[in-house]
Design goal:
The strands form two sheets. A six-stranded mixed β-sheet has the order 3-4-2-1-11-10. The chain contains five helices and eleven strands; from the N terminus they run E-H-E-H-E-E-E-E-E-H-E-H-E-E-H-E. By secondary structure, the protein is α+β, with helices and mostly antiparallel strands. The protein has one domain: Endonuclease/exonuclease/phosphatase (Deoxyribonuclease I, Chain A, 4-Layer Sandwich). Helix 1 crosses helix 2 (73-81).
């Protein structure tokens, strides 16, 4: 087995003269808290996230049951980790809901949701959370795309509208479970839009012996990527059927308008 990746620390306070602020972000499909041993154990998910020590973590396949935590998985995880919760429900589940969530140590400025659902397919969505990072608004998008290639192509157009239709200032981070098993149109489009010299494809599924890079994190070029990896600790290989992916970024203290990359006929800059 590969050795567990070293944990990376949370955001430190900016000092006078600093040009950038370090930020650790992660994306994790928690599979409703059910591990490879078929046991539902949210405390294992909590422990895996603590190993990563992120400032922001986007979660997919999160249940918000009608009862108290741990039936409300999102609230349970947020309370156990001491993080603020923003939930993006995609569908009803029993007496509760199911969808994506963002947990963060940063101040939340606002949020919005986009329905990516396609007819006769499982409902899907994207959650946007605006966060304050040392005087800058960081716009985080957490999504979960569908299983069908045709479905994902249609969802990409909706996602492009949602991400690109904004004139908000500040850098963007897009993360989630993209369900693209091999390099395809989703990968090509997002690599062109979110340009980086860093390789951002890591195998994450199935967690015990990962073969497919389903889980991704993309960021704007003005965010300097220091490191990107799949977190492969022994516990992470058991707690869910996906491994979390982790990016260590540097946030520049300057603002800019996000490009409208969803415009019809406009091709994002090449990588």
């Amino acid at each position: 087995m590969l050795a567990a990746a070293a944990a990376v620390g949370p955001v430190r306070p900016a000092r006078p003269g600093d040009r950038v602020t370090p930020l650790v972000v992660a994306s994790y499909n928690i599979h409703r808290g059910v591990g490879l041993d078929r046991r539902r154990d949210l405390d294992r998910i909590v422990a895996v996230i603590r190993e990563i020590s992120p400032d922001i973590v986007g979660l997919q396949e999160v249940v918000r049951g009608a009862g108290p935590p741990p039936e409300d998985q999102a609230a349970y995880l947020a309370r156990a980790l001491g993080m603020e919760l923003v939930m993006g429900e995609t569908r009803s589940l029993g007496d509760g809901t199911f969808g994506n969530a963002v947990l963060t140590r940063l101040r939340v400025l606002g949020s919005d949701r986009c329905d990516l659902s396609q007819a006769a397919r499982e409902p899907r969505g994207c959650l946007r959370v605006d966060l304050a990072v040392d005087g800058i608004a960081l716009h985080l998008f957490n999504c979960h795309l569908g299983l069908s290639p045709a479905e994902r192509r249609r969802q990409l157009r909706l996602l492009a509208d949602f991400v690109g239709a904004s004139t908000r200032l500040g850098p963007r981070v897009l993360m989630g479970d993209f369900n693209e098993w091999h390099r395809g149109p989703i990968t090509r489009r997002l690599r062109r839009e979110f340009v980086s010299r860093m390789r951002r494809m890591r195998r994450t599924h199935p967690s015990v012996f990962p073969l497919f890079p389903l889980d991704r994190i993309y960021w704007d070029a003005e965010l300097e990527g220091e490191a990107f990896h799949a977190h492969r600790s022994r516990l992470a290989r058991l707690a869910s059927d996906h491994l979390p992916v982790v990016a260590r970024l540097q946030v520049r203290r300057r603002e800019r308008a996000a490009p409208a990359w969803a415009a019809v006929g406009v091709r994002p800059p090449g990588e």
